[in-house]
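Reproducibility note. Readers wishing to regenerate the assembly model reported in the main text can use the exact inputs given here. Chain order matters: entities are listed in the order in which they were concatenated for prediction.
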Amino acid sequence: MTIEIKNLNKTFKTHEKEVFALRDVDLTIETKDFVCLLGPSGCGKTTLLRLIGGLEEGDSGEILDDGKPIVEPSNERGFVFQQYSLFPWLTVLDNVTFGLDLKNGSKEENIKRAKTYLRSVGLENTEKLYPHELSGGMKQRVAIIRSLVNKPKTLLMDEPFSALDIQNRHKLQEQLVRIWQKTEKTIIFVTHDVDEAVFLADHIVLMGKNPGHIKEVYNNKLPRPRNRNSKEFLAIQNHTMELLES
Amino acid sequence: MLPLFVPMVMVVLWYVFSVPIKLVPDYVMPTPIMVITSAYQLIISGKLLNHAIATLIKVLLGLILASVISIPLGVLLGWSGKLEEMSKFIIGILRPIPPVAWIPFSILWFGIGLIPGTFIIFMGCFFPILIYTIDGVKRTDNVLIEAGKTLGTSNLQTITKIIFPSSLPTIISGLKVGVGIALMCTVTAEMVASNSGLGYLIMNSSQLFDTGSVVVGMLSIGVIGLFFDIIFKKIQSKLFW
Ligand SMILES: Nc1ncnc2c1ncn2[C@@H]1O[C@H](COP(=O)(O)OP(=O)(O)OP(=O)(O)O)[C@@H](O)[C@H]1O
Ligand SMILES: [Mg+2]
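Running the prediction on these inputs yields the following structure tokens for the assembly.
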């Protein structure tokens, strides 16, 4: 049960220019791993995540999910976008049941399940609200729950917390780690924030740009729960920073 | 109260210039009293209601027919670049034709009565609704479409569950424009190809030099327009997020 990326290349053609977004990317992600893709702006993090999500097509190479090539998006791979992506015409509850309702399950069951999930992140009082009535942090939590409620095997997240203030960011990071420990999902999380990567991930995929490529994968063995102020945390943070800049 | 201030001043001025001062003869400009008398008679006899209903039926029928065809078509054209490209030219040519230019054919094809009026209205609101729908569909945020796909929408579900609701506010704006055009078309159409409706009332009364009833007909159209406007504002305030 793994996601295997083999010799993946991706270019974008715009007008006359050609951008090498990803070159010769090889990466294996084991099930239940928490992986962060870390690198500077423009190194192809979003592109790689979208390719894994099936939202983009590679030029050459392949991406396998349990041996099967990924060719299109699927609810097996939940996706949390960097931009707010809740459906503005639906209430929080209807947003969360959206994926469940597509499958013609019993509406009552779906609502019950959605409510349980919302409660698990402390959003039980927002069910009847519309997305524009929520704060940024609440929106992203609902977006995460909207994906999780479909029980995807993998959760792909593209800088979901980058628009939040630092307190909220830390709170959501802790919540995410708890969700991950409880639900045992594979999480692939894009960030350009070293602190965030060290706090969240077991494996930090360090990426460089021009063209986008993987420099190396750092295995973060820091025990959980992690303390941002511990000597060990800061040491790993420094080490990762050095690797990234080398 | 404030919106009523200007009309009240106008009525007072109108009265002053048409009754004590008498600037022009009655058949050129009726007095407020004549209008009230005509209105009273038209209401008591039930004629006003019948004409208003005749107009409303045509407007609603034309609008519904146009929506039923142009909204799904607009969604399709907005969704598929190829289909839109294919239809660009024909839409470009048909759209600028004023709906009333269809009057000769509407009479030839449908005679006099309900259907030719409905047809003119159909032609009048078809394109605005179509264009607004296409526009709304094209402006659907791509991230919503992609979010839907990662939650498991099929192509059809993407259209019905994401693209359509996301373009609904724009489609409603198109309907609003459509109603305005529909009212204009009905009245014009009724003046030539009808024996009922507010347009017919206006035309008929004017031939009988009953200028009071002409004004009653005109004001009734205004009231209907206002009524639609209020309804759409209500819908939109519920819809715009
Ligand atoms: N749809 C597109 N069309 C053209 N070029 C693109 C497209 N998407 C990405 N690129 C280019 O590919 C490169 C990688 O982009 P990508 O968005 O994956 O970077 P990123 O690592 O996610 O950056 P950031 O941290 O700023 O989000 C960039 O040079 C970008 O300009
Ligand atoms: Mg990005």
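We highlight two features of this model. Residues A 45-46, 158 surround magnesium ion (ligand 2) (CB under 6 Å). Chain B has one domain: 52-240.
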